[in-house]
Design a protein that fits this description.
Radius of gyration: 25 Å
Distance between the termini: 66 Å
Number of strands: 0
Number of helices: 10
Strand content: under 5%
Largest sheet: none
Oligomer: single chain
Length: about 200
């Protein structure tokens, strides 16, 4: 005898995954949601429609601002690498300023996509608060050390390099918070690297 199609079966005899899909469809229908997946543009517009009154840019302006900030940040970070020789020769200020401004522009670029209020909430949320605080503290420390004349040349170079390493670790820690189980894998990788 031919088997009846799943839709011909009574609801209590459907496969569990089919019943879950049916329940999702019923809930979406009840809430008036569309089953259609939103486009990237719709996702960005929805994410930025959180009521930031000062943030009334169009979608195109947000993308231009985002790409512009990321591009300028990457340019300054690359330019700071050229200034690395000046750091080693005793003039750390150009390197520290270029590197820090590049990082600030790159991190601030997300304000164009999600708005400044939501970006601050993202930065200092429960899982991202500590890495963000370390990241910004190390940026400030980099500038303070670069502009402090009370330290010797060698002390300034060593302290700036330590601040940069801590900045990169904090940035990686922050990025890993967006990946499921990313932070735990990140700490395991650091432990295995340090405990060799």
């Amino acid at each position: 005898a031919p088997r009846p199609s799943p839709s011909a079966l009574p609801p209590h005899q459907h496969h569990p995954s089919q019943r879950m899909e049916d329940a999702k469809e019923a809930l979406d229908s009840l809430l008036g949601r569309d089953r259609k997946e939103p486009t990237l543009r719709e996702q960005i517009e929805e994410a930025t429609a959180s009521g930031d009154a000062c943030f009334s840019l169009s979608y195109e302006e947000r993308i231009i601002g985002f790409v512009g900030c990321v591009g300028a940040g990457l340019f300054l970070n690359c330019f700071s690498l050229i200034r690395l020789t000046e750091l080693m020769l005793g003039n750390p200020t150009p390197f520290a300023v270029c590197f820090t401004l590049g990082n600030l522009l790159s991190m601030g670029s997300m304000c164009f996509l999600v708005g400044p209020v939501r970006q601050c909430k993202n930065l200092f949320g429960s899982r991202r608060g500590l890495p963000s605080a370390v990241y910004f503290t190390m940026m400030i420390a980099t500038l303070v050390v670069a502009f402090t004349s009370a330290l010797t040349h060698l002390e300034r170079v060593v302290m700036i390099l330590c601040c940069l390493i801590l900045q990169m670790i904090a940035l990686a820690w922050y990025v890993m918070s967006y990946i499921p189980f990313g932070q735990s894998y990140f700490f395991k990788a650091i432990q295995s690297f340090c405990c060799r």
